[in-house]
Write a structure and sequence with these properties.
Number of helices: 11
Distance between the termini: 38 Å
Radius of gyration: 25 Å
Number of strands: 0
Largest sheet: none
Order of helices and strands: HHHHHHHHHHH
Number of domains: 2
Shape: elongated
Structural class: mainly alpha
Helix content: over 70%
Strand content: under 5%
């Protein structure tokens, strides 16, 4: 028996003594249906709400209740996110010594690496736009993108570059990591402005995607500006920008959502 069939049986109420044996077996093994049955069975005995509770609920709802404008067409946000990517990239290219990494790359490395970066950025852009409107169908789940994109980038980097001995591995890497994260933070702040227009039901997941997208901006800038073609350097420090940005975005958005939820519960 499925959860839907069990729910239909439970919805008949506690007076229905003919709960099917299959439903009881399903409830015993399914925590969700067990809680549903417990709620239905205990509902009539909960009693009236405490005095003033309805007023507090109404106040909490009306406190932030205000008219909102409908979201623009998805293509508008896709172009906005793409413009943010390009704008931060262009700002980075104005710094002294920029494009040294681009000049160190071969033509094949340029085409292959930046084609993959552009493709990953496009997939994350579509995912962000879908998450802004609840109920939108996403061709690739965001969780799958968060797992697949770092793996794809690691594969591309491994195929395109070779390991070398590097005496200043940590010092050079820390400098790249710091620079990449600084541009990622800038991109994330810019991305948050249009994202606030949407309704994100899973803040931690949206934060991880935003961080991943911002991390791709930082990685792209490092590939253009950093002339160190050591495989280990690129994997650890350049790729680390994407991982660190994604984890930070998930943690911050999840924390803010938790705090906001606790505040609302306290008010109610």
């Amino acid at each position: 028996m499925t959860c839907d069939e069990t729910a239909s049986t439970i919805s008949l109420g506690p007076r229905n003594a003919a709960l099917k044996r299959e439903a009881l077996a399903h409830i015993a093994a399914c925590e969700r249906c067990f809680h549903l049955l417990w709620t239905v069975e205990s509902g009539p005995d909960t009693g009236p709400p405490e005095p003033g509770r309805w007023e507090r609920i109404q106040t909490a709802i009306l406190r932030d209740l205000k008219p909102v404008r409908p979201l623009a067409r998805p293509v508008v946000y896709v172009l906005t996110f793409a413009m943010i990517f390009v704008a931060v990239l262009a700002a980075a290219l104005t710094t002294p010594g920029s494009a040294s990494g681009w000049n160190a790359l071969t033509m094949g490395q340029r085409v292959f690496v930046f084609s993959v970066l552009a493709g990953c950025g496009g997939l994350l852009t579509i995912s962000l736009v879908r998450q802004m409107a609840p109920g939108s169908k996403d061709p690739i789940p965001a969780a799958a993108l968060l797992a697949g994109i770092p793996a794809a980038l690691a594969l591309v980097i491994t195929l395109m570059f070779r390991p070398r001995n590097e005496s200043e591995f940590v010092a050079n890497g820390a400098m790249c990591l710091r620079a990449g994260l600084s541009y990622s933070i800038l991109a994330a702040l810019a991305l948050w402005i249009p994202l606030r227009r949407g309704a994100m039901l899973r803040p931690w997941l949206t934060g991880a995607v935003v961080g991943g997208f911002a991390g791709l901006v930082g990685l792209s800038i490092l590939e253009i500006n950093c002339s160190d073609l050591n495989l280990n350097h690129i994997l650890v420090w350049h790729g680390g920008v994407v991982v660190a940005s994604s984890l930070s975005g998930a943690g911050l958005c999840g924390l803010f959502a938790y705090i906001d939820n606790r505040i609302n519960r306290t008010i109610v």
